[in-house]
Amino acid sequence: MSEILELKNISKSYGSTTVLENISFKINNNEFFTILGSSGSGKSTIIRMIGGFTKPSSGEIIFANKNINDEPIFKRPFNTVFQDYALFPNMNVFDNVGFGLKIKNKSKEEIKKNVLNVLTVVGLEHFSNRMPQELSGGQQQRVALARAIICEPEIILLDEPLGALDAELRKQMQLFLKEIQKKIQISFIFITHDQEEAIFLSDRIAVLNNHKFEQIGSPKDLYYSPKTTYMAKFFGECNLIKCRVTNYDSESIKVSSAFGSFNIPKNKNLNNESEFIYGIRPEEVKLVRQSEKSIKVKIKDINFRGSTSTINATNDNGDSLIKIQNISTNISKSLSINDSIDIEFNTDLGSIFIE
Amino acid sequence: MTRLENYTKYLLAGLTGLIVAALYAPIVLTIFYSFYKSRKGKVDWNSFSYEPYTKLIYERQILESLMNSIYVGVVTVICSVIIGFYFANYYHTSKSKMKEFLQFIIFLPFLLPPIITGLSLLIFFREINLPRSLNTVVIGHTIFVLAIVFKIILNKLETLKPSLMESAYDLGASKWQAFYYVLLPNIKLSLIIAGLLAFTISLDETLITLFLIGNDTTWPIKLWAKMRVGFSKQVNASVTLILILTSLLVLLIASIISRSEKKIMY
Hints:
The complex is a heterodimer of chains A (355) and B (266).
Chain A: E1 3-14, E2 17-28, E3 32-36, H1 43-51, E4 58-63, E5 66-67, E6 78-81, H2 93-103, H3 108-121, H4 137-149, E7 155-158, H5 167-184, E8 187-192, H6 195-201, E9 204-209, E10 212-217, H7 219-224, H8 229-234, E11 239-248, E12 252-257, E13 260-265, E14 275-280, E15 285-288, E16 295-305, E17 308-314, E18 321-327, H9 330-333, E19 340-345, E20 351-353
Parallel strand pairs in A: 3-8, 3-9, 6-7, 7-8
Antiparallel strand pairs in A: 1-2, 1-4, 4-5, 9-10, 11-12, 11-14, 12-13, 14-20, 15-19, 16-17, 16-19, 17-18
Chain B: H1 3-33, E1 37-39, E2 42-44, H2 51-56, H3 60-93, H4 98-111, H5 114-127, H6 134-159, H7 162-170, H8 175-204, H9 207-212, H10 219-228, H11 233-265
Antiparallel strand pairs in B: 1-2
């Protein structure tokens, strides 16, 4: 995979308000790249800068080894799908989609051929005479996408395109977007605040928090190897346990915590006496029969959900809480509140956060 | 419904009728007396004739003044819509703080008493040695109606989503192409409405015109001059004709507005 776009140390502020601080990332060819962040986190600003609608306060946008900071909007080989679709209300679907080609002075036959082609790709071949106002939200979305695809851009920028759709339609459009991106082989930079959507769609996700990228990586990377406690709690749930190393030897590391001692695999970043936060997801905590390695906790409450149940348990003092999600087993069948249970961490999948 | 409520209802209806009558009776009478003669307050019912209208054709002065008014109106429309659009677009897109000042300047001539506007323009034209003519009247009218034209176009621009123009640029359009293919078709109606309103205002503007007109004369000024030497049926006739013309224009504006509203509802 080759890189086609790079953002290097981009910062943006409006007056004294900082929106983005030192953002850097690269976009690969044919990649579905998602920028994930809560509303107001500045995620739209990033693609508005790539599209050319605003300029970064500092930093470089590099496309094909060339700084394009000052390139005007209409010269950039990117097209945007706006959140409100921004279809031209004075043109029908055909003219909306053909607009980019008309501007490039293509012949009428060529425009017609291409428009019908792209409309077929997005499944709107029978709608070319409709006006935008006569289409549903999802259909307008498809027109907006067709309008971008037809220009054959290097990257399509999608600014929360599914934000205005209801849940059902949203699911359909997610599938549609994923399939179409594979089909047309153009890189997508996609903006959303919806974690599930991001995980489902993306090859890579960049999580924006406090004007900075918290982590960039594949959905699996972000889920299984979060780099910060924020990231650990961002996707799904995660138990965060304060620990201290008590014994560091060549084989394993023994740590103590509010729940007692347990062993974790070797880690270069730790040494004797170092303190850290251990992250373990509820589904990586196993119910076991008592053994040397197991930890004893007391059940506080049980949420029985058939095949999976979650258990909230406390340590002996009752001052620390741990969440356990288990596939219902023979052991869990007979559990009730205030029972003592034995648990073990799947330490291969635990994360270590040094603060 | 109680009896009292019934009485109140009729009373209000009667009152409304009286007010409407008081407002519109003079206009109806003007039209009426363009067809009938009266003597000592009594209507001569046998005197119906189109004569004042046919005679109007021979009233060269009235017709000439009417043509002048139409000329002034048309040129005013062209100037005010172009300048009004330019300022409205600037106001809408600019982030400069000067734009509030610009709006103030545009509204000033419209809010000031016309006598002040007319007089200051007259003094200004004399200072720069611009002889008074229909063209100075056009300048005066343009300055006067600019506020309304500006406001109508600005209102329309503010209803457009910013992403509309952005998406045009995004698809490769230059400023001119975006203006011609996207902005213009979407604000067309507001330009037409602004133009029609500018025309009707210009058509009967008298006070500013009075200061700025040279040897020519516009229609309202001609009528005013005619009234001083006594009433003539031709005055009634021309008033009736203009009344019909402006009513049609107003109807046209109203129908355009309601049509565009329906389009938005859709």
